[in-house]
Specification:
The protein has helices spanning about 5-15, 155-165, 205-215, 230-240, 260-265, 300-320, 370-375; strands at about 20-25, 35-40, 50, 55, 70-80, 95, 110, 115-120, 120-125, 135, 145-150, 170-175, 180-185, 190, 200, 220-225, 245-250, 270-275, 275-280, 280-290, 290-295, 330-335, 345-355, 355-360, 380-385, 395-400. The protein is of the alpha/beta class. Strand 23 (about 345-355) and strand 24 form a beta hairpin. The structure holds adenosine monophosphate and magnesium ion.
C-alpha cells in the first residue's frame, strides 16, 4: 500500500511524452503545444492608431482647453487597411485617422474624435495631448524573435488568437493519448435494456469517456468484460494496444475480481495495487511496453476521484503539458467532518466565496457509490492521512477540480 503522493510520483515517472503532429489551427484548442512558438514578425507590424481621431504633434496642442481650443488644418485622412502614399503631419497640422491605421510620418500622438470638433477643413482640439497618446507601438504586443508561447502550453482561446496573428494555419501539438476504457462485472449493464433486480447501469464508462475527452485523450470504449478470467484476458489483450488502458471494477478482494490475475497473465508489470486513500483504496497501476494500465475501483465516486488524482495527470504528462496540478486553496470548513487517521480522504465539497475567502461544505452522504455527491461538488476537500476529525471553522485544503491546471 502506498500513499497518494507516492502513487502519483510512481505513475508520472512511467508516463512518456508522445510524439507530435500537426493539426489545423481550428482544431488546436485543448491540445498541448509541442514546440516553442517564436514570433517571426512584430505585432503590430507598424505604429498605428488606437482610436478614431486626429494624428498630430502633441506639443502643438499645448494649452488647449474646451474654452480655448487649438485650431489645426486637416491635411487628409488615413483609413485602416490603406497602403501606399500617406499624408504627412507637419507642424501645426493634423491628419484624420481611423483605429488601426498606420500612424503618418511626423505625428507623435492621436487625439480621439470625442475631444475635437471638425468644420471647414479645420479641427478644433479641446485638450492637451501627451506625446505617444493613443499610439500602438510596433511590436508592443509581440516583438520579432521572442518566444511567445512555450512548448507544453495548453492552447486556449488566447493562444489560438496569438497563433492566428502569427499566421499559423497548422500547429504542432502532441498526439492525443489513445485511451481504451473497459468496464467489468457480470452485474453491469449497458444503456438500453431495463435493469433486472441486482443489475447496475454502466455509468463509469460514460464518466471516464467524458473525463478522458476533457483532458485531451482519445477515448475508445471497449464494452463490459464479464467476470471470468478468460474473457478479461482476451479483452485486455486487445485493449493493451492503446497508450493507456482504464478498467473499472474487478480490482477488489472479491472472488470474481479477475483484473489483477488477467494482467499478470498478460505480462503487465504491476507496481501499485492499493493506495492509502478514501474513496479509491483498490487501484491498480501497471505498465506493459509503453502502455500504462489503470485498474480503477468500480464504485462510481472512487472511479472518478482516482481518475482525477492519477489518470488525469498521467494523460497530461504524456502530452507534455507543463501544468498538471489542479489548484489547491485554503477554505474554512462550514461543518464537522468525521475521519479516521491512516488514509487521505477526498471529500466531495461545494465551495463558495465569502468575506474575501473560500468556505466549503460537503455535498452530503459520501458513500463511494453515491455519484450525486460528485455531481453536486465543485471541489474535493483533501484531508491528509494523519489528520483525524475536523470541526466547523477549521481551515482545510480544497482541490478545485473544475478549474484548469496550474
Ligand atoms: P467491484 O470492485 O467490481 O466489486 O465493483 C464495486 C462496485 O462498483 C460494484 O458493486 C458496482 O456497484 C460498482 N460498479 C462497478 N462497475 C461499475 C460501472 N461500470 N458503472 C457503475 N457502477 C459500477
Ligand atoms: Mg466487479
Amino acid at each position: 500500500m502506498v500513499s497518494v503522493e507516492e502513487a502519483l510520483g510512481m505513475i508520472l515517472a512511467e508516463a512518456r511524452v508522445l510524439p507530435s503532429e500537426m493539426v489545423p489551427l481550428l482544431d488546436a484548442p485543448g491540445r498541448i503545444l509541442a514546440q516553442d512558438v517564436v514570433a517571426s514578425v512584430d505585432i503590430p507590424s507598424v505604429d498605428n492608431s488606437a482610436m478614431d481621431g486626429y494624428a498630430l504633434i502633441a506639443a502643438d496642442a499645448r494649452g488647449a482647453t474646451k474654452e480655448r481650443a487649438v485650431r489645426f488644418p486637416v491635411r487628409g485622412e488615413i483609413k485602416a487597411g490603406v497602403t501606399g502614399d500617406m499624408p504627412v503631419v507637419t507642424a501645426g497640422c493634423a491628419v484624420r485617422i481611423m483605429t488601426g491605421a498606420p500612424l503618418p510620418r511626423g505625428a507623435d500622438a492621436v487625439i480621439q474624435f470625442e475631444d475635437t470638433a471638425e468644420a471647414g477643413g479645420e479641427v478644433l482640439v479641446f485638450r492637451e495631448v501627451l506625446k505617444g497618446e493613443n499610439i500602438r507601438r510596433t511590436g508592443e504586443d509581440v516583438s520579432r524573435g521572442a518566444v511567445v508561447l512555450s512548448k507544453g502550453a495548453l492552447i486556449r482561446s488566447a493562444e489560438s488568437g496569438m497563433l492566428a496573428s502569427l499566421n499559423y494555419t497548422f500547429v504542432p501539438v502532441s498526439r492525443r493519448p489513445r485511451v481504451a476504457i473497459l468496464s467489468t462485472g457480470d452485474e453491469i449493464v449497458d444503456l438500453g435494456p431495463e435493469l433486472k433486480s441486482g443489475q447496475i447501469r454502466n455509468s463509469n464508462a460514460y464518466t471516464l469517456h467524458s473525463e478522458v475527452r476533457r483532458y485531451g485523450g482519445d477515448p475508445r470504449y471497449l464494452g463490459i468484460a464479464p467476470d471470468t478470467k478468460a474473457a478479461t484476458v482476451s479483452i485486455l489483450r486487445e485493449a493493451l494496444e492503446a497508450d493507456v488502458v482504464i478498467t473499472t471494477g474487478g480490482v477488489s478482494m472479491g472472488r470474481y475480481d479477475f483484473v489483477t490475475e488477467a494482467l499478470e497473465e498478460l505480462g503487465v508489470g504491476i507496481t501499485i495495487e492499493t493506495i492509502r486513500m478514501k474513496p479509491g483504496k483498490p487501484c491498480v497501476f501497471g505498465k506493459k511496453g509503453s502502455t500504462l494500465f489503470f485498474g480503477l475501483p468500480g464504485n462510481p465516486v472512487s472511479t472518478m476521484v482516482s481518475f482525477i488524482q492519477f489518470v488525469r495527470p498521467a494523460l497530461l504528462r504524456m502530452m507534455g503539458a507543463r501544468r498538471i496540478e489542479k489548484p489547491l486553496v485554503h477554505a474554512v470548513l462550514s461543518e464537522d467532518i468525521k475521519k479516521k487517521t491512516g488514509r487521505t480522504h477526498f471529500v466531495r465539497g461545494l465551495f463558495s466565496v465569502s468575506e474575501g475567502g473560500f468556505s466549503v461544505s460537503t455535498t452530503g452522504p459520501q458513500g463511494s457509490g453515491i455519484l450525486r455527491s460528485m455531481s453536486d461538488a465543485n471541489c474535493l476537500v483533501i484531508i491528509p492521512e494523519e489528520t483525524g476529525n475536523l470541526r466547523a471553522g477549521e481551515t482545510v485544503l480544497i482541490q478545485l477540480i473544475e478549474h484548469g491546471e496550474i
